Amino acid sequence: MNSESPQSIGVSFAGNVGEKIPLMNRRRQMFDYFTRMFGNSNAGSEETSKDGYVEFGNIGEATSGRTLGPFAGVFAPVCLSMFSAMLFLRVGFVVGNAGLIETLFQFAIAYTIIVFTVMSVCAISTNGAVEGGGAYFMISRTLGPELGGSIGTLFFLANIVSSALCLTGCVEGLIDNFGESGYLMPKDSYILNDGHWWRFTYTSSLNFLNLLICLIGATLFAKTTVIIFAIVVICLLSSVISFFLKSPLQIEVPAANTFVNQTNTTVLLNYTGFSLTTFSENLGPRFGNDYTSNNIAVTFSTVFGVLFCGVTGILAGANMSGNLKNPSYSIPRGTLGGVLFTFISYISLSILVAATCSRDLLQENYVFLMPINIWPPFTSIGILTATFSASLSCLIGSSRVLEALAKDCIYGRLLQFVNYGVWRSNPIAAVLFSWLLVQMILFIGSLNLIAQLNSILFLLAYVALNLTCLGLDLTSAPNFRPSFKYFSAWTCSFGLMGSVIMMFVINPFYASTSFGLCLLLILLLHFFSPCEASEWGSISQALIFHQVRKYLLLLDPRKNHIKFWRPQMLLMVANPRSSCPTITFINDLKKSGLFVLGHVKVDKAETNLDYTDKTISSWLTLVDHVKVKAFVELTVANSVREGLHHLIRLSGIGAMKPNTVVMGFYDNKVPLDYFTRLDSVYKTSLFQGITTNDEKFPLRLPNEEKNLSTSEFVSMICDIFQMHKNICICRHFDLYNKTDIVKNIKYKYIDVWPVNFFGPSMNDAYDTSSLFMLQLSCIIKMIAVYKKHTLRVHLLNTIDIQSQRVQLKQLLSTLRIKATIHEVQEWSQIDLTTLDSDKNTYISRVNKLIKNQCAETAICFVYLPMPKELRGSDLQNVSYLNSLTDLTNNLPPTVLVHGVSAVTSTTL
């Protein structure tokens, strides 16, 4: 035993290898090592806060690039983004058209959706390490690349539109201050010209200034966020105080309102101060026209669209997740605090406006807060700082989302330029591309029109966030353990439904288009994205598991009815290299039933306990390559027969268990390698190793001994029968070529031979095996490839052939099977008495008879008789297999069929 004490053992997690580190320091370094390894780059020590959040604080200096806390990193950006253009520019528009009561109602709706969505954001963000990309990162790592990528793309566009919205609001404030009749300009003088293209020039200039700041780096903006927030709060307080200090006055209509000013007479609007009359007049709705949008009529949905764009900034903090010291700690506190602060601000301002400003003032002058301020520049500064900072925040956020999309290779090479255009951790290319898109949105010009589009896109992001959290909660995934506990499936559902409903209330066309675009992106990403869901995990798998488990428990085998019978196949595969055609055929034959590929490795089980884990991946790749809908079951046993017992008993689950076992035929044919044959549709290099030993599914050599003997193969047939499973044995499927069957016109028939050739009887066509054959042939006829083929049931010429024909025709009619009955005249030439005296000659003649009828046959179904002795001797087993071999020699692809239970129904 080592004589050194635990305290003196050298550890190489930090410092020099072999350096002796005190026990507490070493434990701390070990914790750092593992937390870094599992994705928390800030982790150093684990603490529990008073509120129950698990905090990972930093020991020593913060990780490079992650320097922001809850206030500067989340609270201030959230408040600034939510205030944006709404606070100083559109509160009057909302109250003036909707009235105070409806305004409060709309704020209640908006904040209900917001609060429930914030709860979902908090739950997701406290369930693990949140990296750069914010809401996109949360959604994609939960919903998977298809949904996550599509929603992330629309969220990127939402930030683009929001940036354009805020720039438009900023320029509106500039014009009202420094344009014609500007409140900060002497009468009949101005600095800024007004007009559509002048405003576009100003917004473009501000957008270019945003670009320059972003190119310098987001850190510059982050450092000034708190200062900007303080300025906006001071300006807001000045406006609130002004309502109490300012005396009643008359205010001119702004020059921008050309629809009122076109009369060339000065129109004055009343600020009444606190007045019960004014307050009562402003309680109810009275929708007017919007003078900034060609005087279009204002409606409830228009107002809500503008109002909601003022509360869409809840993800501004989450967007900065890559710069937060501890996202799981900062995002919940900062976001909830910001939501509460902005709610109080909006409600207070709405009540004060309704109590002091006439309806005409609110509808005809959107910048009325400036002339009634105790010092008008306060309002001007508030408008410019709130809108400009929000536009800059959205541009930064959109570029970070685009960078995250590019890093995840969601769109493959399409966004590779973003990854190449990074300088000192600043995504230059993403910033430039985002700036260009903002520039395009600025052509719209009207703030109120942009606001509706902005609200729709953000609501769609909220739908995805609530859906994400709801899915995680419903699936009861053990690893979903957020430290934020104030959420439930109900809050997620309310947030989800509220977001969807309000999207269609605001603008049904925009809402439908956004959902359609989202669906299109999902489909495109599903089929063309190189990103693998397995790298992140997808909630779809958890939801599928949850629902499948629930329905499997409801699937009661005691309630099975023959009317709803379907084949559930267990295909025994010796080697998939030589079995591809059989696998494809059985996939067609399963008719939406269970399909299991079973394989037995003959070896000692105790030395191969990890066999399934080591090989299952290759088998699943095989399933994808062959394009079949199948499960895989592998086992290790001392013999193939013993392994067959394992698979029959254990394959499937609940009522979904195989009822039919399919095997290949036992013969001496050299197995073909369909993975390497030049003419094979299954040709691939997927399973090719660097050396021969690395090759997957190596084929048995021609002189190599089989793992299965003749007697054991026959015993397996008997075992399947005794275990009450239907039996299918496929032979000559090396000749089966589905493509050739489609193209080659010589293939016209699917043949069924409903007669036990080892002991013919008048009732063979009506027993369980023959009915099972008819069912299988009917199923294969439903496949598109075989629809042009004729299903042909062979009737052997007997003494009472006419009566047999009528009965068989009646049976096919009753079973609703469209088939032709073909009388085989040559049967009368075969002497049945030779079946016992000269069996080989008899079987040879039967084989020739069948072969003569199969020149144009694609698939042949033949009755499989059971051995006379189910536990016969080796000699009897060999004789039985030889008879089957002689019976099916030189036939087209043939399925020997034996049924053990009824599979057809004539009842409704």
TrEMBL record:
Recorded topology in the membrane: Multi-pass membrane protein
GO CC terms: membrane
Swiss-Prot/TrEMBL keywords: Membrane, Transmembrane, Transmembrane helix, Transport
GO terms assigned for molecular function: potassium:chloride symporter activity
Claim: Membrane is one of the keywords in the record: yes
Domain Amino acid permease/ SLC12A: 79-570
Subcellular compartments: Membrane
Segments forming domain SLC12A transporter C-terminal: 590-667
Stored InterPro entries: AA-permease/SLC12A_dom, SLC12_C, SLC12A_fam
GO biological process, one term: potassium ion homeostasis
Primary localisation category: membrane
Record carries keyword Signal: no
One Pfam family recorded for the sequence: SLC12
Family the entry assigns: Belongs to the SLC12A transporter family.
Name by which UniProt lists this protein: Solute carrier family 12 member 9
Species of provenance: Macrosiphum euphorbiae (potato aphid)
